[in-house]
User: Fold this.
Amino acid sequence: ALVEEQKMGEALDHFQRAVAIAPWDAEAWLALGLARHRSGQTGAMAAFDSAFAQMTDSTRKRLDRAHHPFA
Assistant:
């Protein structure tokens, strides 16, 4: 919600804390990467790389269904 509301500073702080607390959380890394990308900060690709490295098959399938619900 913070990213959509253009509250990038808050979003970045939130997602950085999230990945510090739970570095295995692929979705937290994805959110951090998105916030970094949208705010023009460096490190978005590194966050995306971390997300993909942490993803399990079930996480990939769930995210795929969320983005392609009728596939």
User: Anything to note?
Assistant: The two ends are 26 Å apart (CA to CA). The CA atoms of residues 8 and 29 lie 15 Å apart.
